[in-house]
Amino acid sequence: MRAPHRTIIIATVCLTLGLTGCGSTGSFGEASFLYKNYTIAEGSTMAGEGHTVLFKGTPLSLSGTGIKVGDPIREVKLTQADLSLINITDTKGKGKVRIISVVPSLDTKVCEQQTHYLSERNKGLDKMIELITISIDTPFAQKRFAEEAHIANVTFLSDYRGADFGKTYGLFLKDPHILARTVMVIDAHNHVRHLQITPELAQLPDLDEAFAVAKSLITAN
To answer: What DSSP letter does each residue of 7-56 carry, written as one string?
Structure first.
């Protein structure tokens, strides 16, 4: 891709994904968050090198080694709110079903809604499983978001140091340095049982389907 064209794409994505802001979340809670009718993505793209997601029709290339359903989750360290590192295999939900929601940036309206939906509309699953949100936002930004949005039932993990999670799972978008919008369901034995990478970055994943898969795993156990 020629440099000027790439610069235009990066600028466009950053303007749309980075400057829509979540500053209005100060009074948001389960009862007051205003859900909007964003499109739910159908199907999934594949993770890893050689695959792309679209941003309003423009392809963006995925980097890293792709993960797929059936694979064990891969060890990689992420940063917690206190700046300490934790391996994704060893979060507090280890040994239980986990839902991992990956967002490009919490400072966007679509990512904001995805995270509220995970927190507020999980049909009581948060009492039985761990809900995780991963983004390249700094731990400070994630903590601020969680506090302002009154979200206390989601574990926020940051991939800001070197996008190691994104690269390890094939979910890293080198330009413009964000993660692809994704939802994964991990079983109690650390295997991926459900994976959706939205083919269009501006669309939401089908979290209700992820909830159904998680519930079926709990029932099976």
So the answer is: HHHHHHHHHHHHSS--GGGGG--TTT-----PPBP-S-PPPSTT-EEEET
Give the pLDDT confidence of 38-83 residue by residue, as tens digits: 999 999 999 999 999 999 889 999 999 999 999 999 999 999 999 9
pTM of the predicted model as reported, rounded to 2 decimal places = 0.87
Class of domain 3-220 (CATH, top level): alpha beta
Residues serving a catalytic function are 111
Long-range contacts formed by 73-79: CB under 8 A, 24+ apart = 73/186, 73/190, 73/191, 73/192, 74/168, 74/169, 76/164, 76/165, 76/168, 76/169, 77/164, 78/134, 78/157, 78/158, 78/159, 78/164, 78/165, 79/139, 79/157, 79/158, 79/159, 79/160, 79/161
